[in-house]
Design brief:
about 575 residues, alpha/beta, DHBP synthase, 3 domains, eight-stranded mixed beta sheet, six-stranded mixed beta sheet, 16 helices, 23 strands
């Protein structure tokens, strides 16, 4: 083998929200969520398409891979290399390593973080079965299932100590599995005592599904305190348990969108209660785990880590001084954790610091190909190639236009951060309803996030740290709330993205150009997708959505595209 041959490690997740990630000499070359390829939101299972995407983007094949590391929620370690939810493409060789669910989450959080040393907390709905965990050595167990019952107990929260050489479990808690069919609609269908399971159960009760748990967080501020006085969780000996006696009072789940609107306050009050209980449970858990392994730095992963309201409380009220949440804290991030585990802990290579970027998809930068896609899509589209595209975009936004932005590789994770974004003027409150109804086709209560120049963020928001991935909800200063009507939620908060010049100079230049025209270095920023669909991946996806919605302008590559009258 030539000494200068690159070392490639492939990480892959066969969970829901499936994904694949490719490292070259310890750095991420490309990563993709399966849903972006299939166009089916939260697609998981068989990983073949995601793997092929990564190999093609890097211009390599299976023979170039030095190691493959994988994980799946269910199926144990019996899924092998040839079959999982369909035939897989992986070679059946000793180069394939399988690790457990929470360990993959923990590695994704730590190795993407800027910390040399950190504690890592993983909280989700359901991880791997106890008998399939690969990270039990040296860990204190909240409870140790034995015998045949071990296959029915699953990870619910785990705590790790992380350094440049190792991510090692300090404490792991397990829970028996839930009940698929039960008398109470809000009953968790995964682990009985997981925070994520309770949140998913409530989301299904309120919205008839659990594919977008962030909706419950957005609905909660419309609820009223004091309507319900029961405790959803019980905290005992450093462990979280779910109470079940209150669930018998909630048997009238949502039936339809019309039913949701008719009983809006009822569902909002439930959301308020569940959200507050989740926050309190997490804070108790964080404090208890800190005592086991104190650190100034906390990395937080798992689906529950996408709760941006709870994240802000952890940052503000916990003993940890610094908090890092990876942009794909949910199961889509497992592939990244698998790949880094392979590089650092299987191959024994030195950690290579991540540069903080989330733009991990392949580039679509062929101008001729982009123009051909636009022209083939519709004869009614007008294509311009302005000399100063940033200036033209800022002008259009100042005029109140909604603008879709497609550039470079797509963001990895559920938040659009400037590469697959829909942008608008945050001062024009009517644009919130317009985008919800004419562009996203989603519920009218859902808020939009602001992207703001990092150096200006403290002028508008009560923020003490950078928020590059839109994973913190912070209060808006009172004097600005009425001036930023399109991005301030009903409770006076916003889930913000701070944009640094060195991290994304192009987005920073657009925000600066908008500030030159309006005095405000901020834009409404929401993901370039429609309700129940994944974020667009290709130029064809972008043009199709542009034609089918009320978007006014599409910025794609060097082109500005508008519709004829």
């Amino acid at each position: 083998m030539p000494k200068d041959k690159p070392v490639y490690v492939l990480g892959t997740s066969l969970s829901h929200n499936g994904s694949a990630c490719l490292l070259k000499d310890g750095k991420i070359v490309v990563a993709i969520e399966k849903e972006r390829i299939t166009k089916v939101k939260n697609a998981g299972g068989n990983d073949s398409m995601a793997i092929v995407y990564c190999l093609n983007a890097a211009g390599i094949n299976f023979d170039d891979l030095d190691l493959i590391v994988q994980n799946a929620n269910f199926g144990g370690f019996a899924y092998g290399n040839k079959w999982y939810d369909g035939r897989r493409l992986l070679p059946d060789s000793e180069r394939v390593v399988t690790i457990s669910h929470h360990l993959a989450h923990a590695c994704s959080a730590y190795y993407l973080s800027p910390f040399e040393e950190a504690a890592v907390l993983v909280v989700d709905g359901c991880g791997n079965a106890f008998e399939n965990c690969t990270d039990l050595d040296g860990a204190t167990l909240g409870e140790c299932p034995v015998g045949d019952m071990a296959s029915l107990w699953f990870e619910k929260d785990s705590y790790y100590a992380a350094s440049c050489k190792m991510v090692a479990a300090k404490y792991k808690d397990f829970s028996p599995y839930g009940r698929i069919d039960c008398d109470y609609p809000m009953h968790p269908q995964t682990t009985r005592h997981s925070i994520g399971g309770i949140y998913a159960g409530a989301s299904k009760y309120v919205f008839k599904g659990s594919s977008d748990l962030g909706k419950l967080m957005g609905l909660a501020p419309y609820g009223r305190p004091g309507i319900y006085d029961f405790d959803i969780f019980n905290f005992c000996d450093g462990r979280i348990f779910a109470n079940y006696d209150w669930m018998c009072n909630f048997v009238d789940r949502v039936e339809s969108e019309e039913d949701f609107k008719r009983r809006f306050q009822y569902f909002a009050d439930i959301a308020w209660k569940v959200q507050k209980e989740i926050e309190c449970a997490l804070l108790k858990l964080v404090h208890a785990r800190y005592e086991l392994h104190p650190s100034e730095n906390l990395c937080f992963a798992g689906g529950v880590a996408l709760n941006a309201v709870a994240n802000q409380r952890i940052l503000r009220e916990s003993p940890f001084k610094r908090l890092f949440i990876p942009p794909a804290a949910d199961d889509s991030g497992l592939a990244i954790g698998c790949a880094y585990y392979g590089w650092n802990q299987v191959l024994g290579r030195e950690r290579v610091p991540h540069d903080g970027t989330t733009f991990l998809g392949r580039d679509y930068d062929n101008e001729e190909e982009i123009r051909r896609v636009i022209e083939c899509a519709s004869l009614s589209l007008k294509i311009q190639r302005p000399d100063n595209i940033i200036g033209e975009m800022a002008n259009a936004l100042e005029e109140g236009k909604t603008l879709a932005w497609f550039r470079g590789g797509a963001e990895f994770g559920p938040r659009a951060l400037g590469h697959r974004s829909i942008l608008a003027d945050p001062r024009q409150s009517e644009l919130r309803d317009y985008i919800n109804s004419k562009v996203k086709f989603r519920e009218d209560f859902r808020p939009f996030a602001p992207s703001v120049l990092a150096e200006d963020a403290g002028q508008y928001f009560e923020v003490t740290t950078e928020c590059p991935y839109m994973l913190l909800v912070v209060p808006v200063y009172t004097e600005w709330r009425s001036k930023l009507g399109a991005v301030v939620h009903v409770d006076g908060t916003s889930r913000i993205q701070t944009v640094r010049k060195d991290a994304d100079p192009i987005f920073h230049s657009l925000l600066s150009a908008f500030k030159e025209r309006t005095g405000l270095g901020m834009l409404l920023n929401t993901s370039f997708n429609r309700r129940n669909q994944p974020i667009v991946e290709t130029p064809s996806d972008a043009v199709k959505m542009f034609l089918e919605t009320g978007l006014h302008i599409l910025s794609i590559g060097p082109f500005l595209v508008t519709k004829s009258a």
